[in-house]
Amino acid sequence: MSPRRYSMGSRNAAIAKTRQRILDATIKLHTQHGIFGTTWKDIATEADVAIGTVYKHFPTLDDLVPACGELLMERLRPPSPEAVTEIIGGATDPKERLRRVANELFAFYHRGGRHLESDLRERELPAMREWEEYLRNMVAGFVREALAERPGDDVVQAISFLFDFPTFKAMRIRGMTVDLAAEMATAMALCWLKGKGRTSTD
To answer: What predicted TM-score, i.e. pTM, was given to this entire model?
Structure first.
């Protein structure tokens, strides 16, 4: 290996390491203080780099927030829409199908914790709007598959809110365990479906 190739490799590794430190610091601070409650100076101090270094890697929030989101998703492992068939498995009973979906989604919400929370201002950021749309579509897709009867969009949306992160968070605030929250969401979904004559499951 030539000295130049070795030097370039070391330099690239150092750049990647610095970028990682900045992202780790940003995620920590955003979780503690929110996106708009965190300054580039805060990030630089936490990452032990110069402010200019932060700006060099991430000139704007539109650069920084998506990069943090990608790293978080690698760590939090959201359920893949393509995995819904495997998650439901061979279950044919609507109650069991919905319970498996609730268990998978609520386990993800539990892993994500405060990382999945955002305020009204943060939701105006393009990356946050894109993320929330992805979550809504993922939940709706899971619910649609769990119902297994080609439900209309009105039914899917009515059930999906019971499996959304804000519903999970409200249950947890009221002292429910993750397992109990999943059971409760499933029971409420079935109750609504029975009221509409959609299922005869007890």
So the answer is: 0.81
